[in-house]
Specification:
- By secondary structure, the protein is α+β, with helices and mostly antiparallel strands.
- The chain has two domains: 3-227, Chemotaxis protein chec (3-Layer(aba) Sandwich), CATH 3.40.1550; 255-272 and 280-327, Surface presentation of antigens (SPOA).
- It contains ten helices and 14 strands.
- The strands form three sheets. Strands 1, 2, 3, 4, 6, 7, 8 and 9 form an eight-stranded antiparallel β-sheet that branches.
- A hairpin with a 3-residue loop joins strand 3 and strand 4.
- It is elongated.
- It starts with a helix and ends with a helix.
- Residues 187-244 have low confidence and may be disordered.
């Protein structure tokens, strides 16, 4: 197999799998067109790819170590996990939270599992990736900080024209040239025409969604989520059927649970004078239920109990399911 033909098959397979994974898990009809690809330098990408978006990095462990980096510009990179979490959402979320990150990580894990099977058949060797990593940054800035790209002068840059509804945007895939060449060890040269550096989001026509204003915080997106009117079932405290189905794909995702006894505000002078034996008064009254937080979002109230030699929390009431979804 000529390496040019092999590369084309790799990128075609990736587009097909990613499109199907997004559509199945989020319900969004993602269309991906014919890609353009070429060899360029990492410096050119770092200098021109300044638009912020969601980045999915898949570390490759076999047949050779490498990395493949997917970039989706805002708001589309955030709309996809938002639809997985809440199928009734219209538009991108206010914040790209840990739950959005986890949803996208689950999507990417499933997609790359399928991609690995396709790639294995194409290259004739076992292709395997580690757990994908999710980031919110510009592609150029992210590549500067990525250790796997250190000492990598040339990369393969692939641009996929994409569409959700009536909105056009671009999805970019980056991989080191040495890694791509190593997937086909019997071939010594790559007959690929050099093209201009693809910049994600070059198609700026946005008819139904606003491009978000990104705040300084890396977790901020800044576009209000518009939600459809709740059905009578949702208003009664039940999770919509579509939401329950989509949440099932995230049941194995680990989350951080915090039990908050109370909070206090103290002046810096008092803080500086703290010593062993000092007492800080909290805003929680004796006997008042304490908050249970999941990824810093309030989901339940509880009472402190002692379990053997450890403390525990007994749940006394839960925040309404639809309210929990809104908080995330």
């Amino acid at each position: 197999m000529e390496i040019k033909s092999g590369i084309i098959k790799l990128f075609e397979a990736f587009a097909s799998v990613w499109r199907n994974a997004v559509t199945e898990l989020s319900g969004l009809e993602l269309e991906i067109g014919r890609f353009s690809a070429g060899e360029t330098t990492i410096a050119a990408v770092e200098g021109k790819a300044t638009e912020r978006g969601v980045i999915v990095t898949a570390p490759v462990v076999s047949p050779v170590p490498g990395v493949m980096i997917l970039f989706m510009p805002l708001p589309y990179g955030a709309i996809i996990p938002e639809k997985i979490i809440n199928p009734d959402a219209v538009g991108s979320p206010d914040h790209f939270s840990e739950l959005h990150r986890s949803a996208l990580e689950e999507l990417a894990s499933q997609a790359w599992a399928s991609v690995s099977g396709e790639f294995s058949n194409i290259i004739g060797d076992r292709f395997k990736t580690a757990v994908p990593e999710i980031a919110l940054d510009s592609l150029g800035n992210y590549l500067k900080k990525l250790p796997a790209m250190t000492g990598t002068p040339e990369v393969m840059a692939v641009e996929y024209p994409a569409r959700i509804g009536r909105d056009n945007f671009s999805i970019t895939l980056i991989a080191p040239m040495k890694f791509i060449s190593a997937l086909f060890p019997s071939d010594k040269t790559i007959e690929m025409v050099k093209v201009a550096v693809p910049q994600a989001g070059v198609m700026k026509e946005m008819k139904t969604m606003e491009v978000p204003h990104v705040e300084e915080s890396p977790a901020e997106i800044g576009v209000t989520v518009k939600k459809k009117t709740r059905s009578s079932a949702a208003a009664g405290g039940k999770i919509p059927r579509g939401a329950k189905r989509n949440l099932e794909v995230m049941l194995d995702i680990p989350v951080s649970v915090t039990v908050e006894i109370g909070r206090a505000k103290v002046p810096v002078s008092k803080l500086m004078n703290l010593s062993p034996g000092s007492v800080i008064g909290l805003d929680t009254l004796n006997g008042t239920p304490i908050k249970v937080l999941v990824n810093n979002h309030h989901v339940a109230n509880a009472q402190v109990v002692v379990i053997g030699e450890k403390f525990g929390a007994r749940i006394v009431d839960l925040v309404a399911p639809e309210k929990r979804l809104e908080e995330f």
